[in-house]
């Protein structure tokens, strides 16, 4: 039983702003792809802290990097630079299309930087009329007022007063509408190279290539939101590498820190020069403590062994989910790439994805949702096969529980 001195779930309702409705359990310990709650009940983690825990819980190399840096220096602010930030920026530049890096604390902050930079670039080069941003319905780019407005889900942005303007939302993968929308007043197009919160929707090959080509034609910057898809999640270091399409600006967060809050905006020299001292900033961005951990994450993830292992694990997950579906007939398809997968519910189960999540917790497995109709899986990139098999066995129990309800 829960220790009487431990905080309980009831305390959340008493002291926390009600922006979340967390499960009744409170995890207190994790190791690899397993988590234990206050009652020492074990769970297989297929959620990864929403695609954050790229190397599982308490990976020894990350714990070592954290402890080593904790005994050196924690924080400096950007009045001066620090060694871990410089090393991390160099790793990211050497591994991607980018020439320059800006560090922030969260995906929303990285995307805010992307959007501000795109607007400033267009203003400096083409004047104030070139300010339009194209984004996609059911997209998600963060919770700042700018990013939540660019995200294509009004339920997250309505009710807060006048929204930032000159933003147009169109359907994902709708090439004809995109062609009709982009023009010479478009300053940027922001897109997820695999739509996450909107239902794990992959881009059509022709669509994403045409988006790139039309951005170039209209002198619009292409921004890839790789907050969820980046750092090995799709089996490439970044998803753009598997699409054959290179953005002008890219945001990365989540898996970059392996559980430590960090984000980055990556871009080219030509674009980066339109941010000068004072135009943007972050007190904590590039913090030496978090950068030390992120350096180790990049070092471990950006290897053939881990990246090819993601693709192998995708197949293990797909095979297991398909076997569950052959027996219970609840999914229309399993889609996504790498270890960002979505099981789309059949019409008779639509609107019930959270029921599967909660039943999963009862059965000892943590999963996610991607909207009301899709169950999302984003486990550790190095989850052992035996944990996949055990987690899927528990998930099948959860499926049966929902079906019997």
TrEMBL record:
Chief site of localization: cytoplasm
Annotated protein name in UniProt: Acetylornithine aminotransferase
One Pfam assignment: Aminotran_3
Amino acids binding N(2)-acetyl-L-ornithine: 143, 282
A molecular-function term among this protein's GO annotations: identical protein binding
SUPFAM superfamilies xrefs: PLP-dependent transferases (SSF53383)
Keyword terms of this UniProt record: Amino-acid biosynthesis, Aminotransferase, Arginine biosynthesis, Cytoplasm, Pyridoxal phosphate, Transferase
UniProt pathway: Amino-acid biosynthesis; L-arginine biosynthesis; N(2)-acetyl-L-ornithine from L-glutamate: step 4/4
Catalytic activity annotation: N(2)-acetyl-L-ornithine + 2-oxoglutarate = N-acetyl-L-glutamate 5-semialdehyde + L-glutamate
InterPro entries per the UniProt record, alphabetical: Ac/SucOrn_transaminase_bac (IPR017652), AcOrn/SuccOrn_fam (IPR004636), Aminotrans_3 (IPR005814), Aminotrans_3_PPA_site (IPR049704), Class-III_PLP-dep_AT (IPR050103), PyrdxlP-dep_Trfase (IPR015424), PyrdxlP-dep_Trfase_major (IPR015421), PyrdxlP-dep_Trfase_small (IPR015422)
Family: Belongs to the class-III pyridoxal-phosphate-dependent aminotransferase family. ArgD subfamily.
Necessary cofactors: pyridoxal 5'-phosphate
GO terms under cellular component: cytoplasm
Residue numbers binding pyridoxal 5'-phosphate: 140, 225-228, 283
